[in-house]
Amino acid sequence: MARTHLWVMFSIVVGTCILRFRPKWIMGLSLECILHSVTSLNCPFCGMTRDFVAILHGQHPELNPFSWLAAVVIYCVYPAVFVWAWLCRKLDLFYRPVVYKLLAAGLFLMFVVNNLRK
């Protein structure tokens, strides 16, 4: 269990470094959201890559209203909860049904809000 979370933490660090120091590597790929191209609806994450680049460069994010909250969760909440769970030997916390339900509810809320601003 810990190995998976350590890989996630490593990926967050590497992704952050790329978005901070070499954003053109990602932004130049011209990636397109499949959900948006098929349905014209924004997925919960539409605009977050550009917003994370803006946040990491000290600018205000504009595309996704949840970008700041996602940044706080990714950079503060998740690492803190992971370290706490690891130290207390309670990594099963991440695999409880309530966590999955909270994630699903959060993604649904992000989907709704990200499409209301059209």
Summarize the structure.
This protein is mainly alpha-helical and 118 residues long. It has helices at 2-21, 23-27, 34-39, 48-56, 67-87, 97-116.
Describe this structure in words.
The protein is mainly α and 118 residues long. The protein has one domain (2-116). The protein is 69% helix and 0% strand. The chain contains six helices and no strands. The chain has helices spanning 2-21, 23-27, 34-39, 48-56, 67-87, 97-116. Helix 1 runs antiparallel to helix 5 (67-87). The longest helix has 21 residues, at 67-87. 9% of the residues are buried. The model has no long low-confidence stretch (mean pLDDT 91).
Supply database-style keywords.
mainly alpha; 118 residues; globular
Topology:
Layout: H1 2-21, H2 23-27, H3 34-39, H4 48-56, H5 67-87, H6 97-116
Helix pairs in contact: 1-5
What's the total number of strands? 0
Label the overall shape.
globular
- Measured on Cα atoms, how large is the radius of gyration? 16 Å
Which range best describes the helical content: under 10%, 10-25%, 25-40%, 40-55%, 55-70% or over 70%? 55-70%
Q: What is the makeup of the main sheet?
A: none
| SS strand fraction | under 5%
- Low-confidence runs: none
Q: What is the tally of helical segments?
A: 6
Structural category: mainly alpha
Q: How widely separated are the two ends? A: 40 Å
Q: Could you say how many structural domains there are in total?
A: 1
> What number is the mean pLDDT?
91
User: How do the helices and strands follow one another from N- to C-terminus?
Assistant: HHHHHH
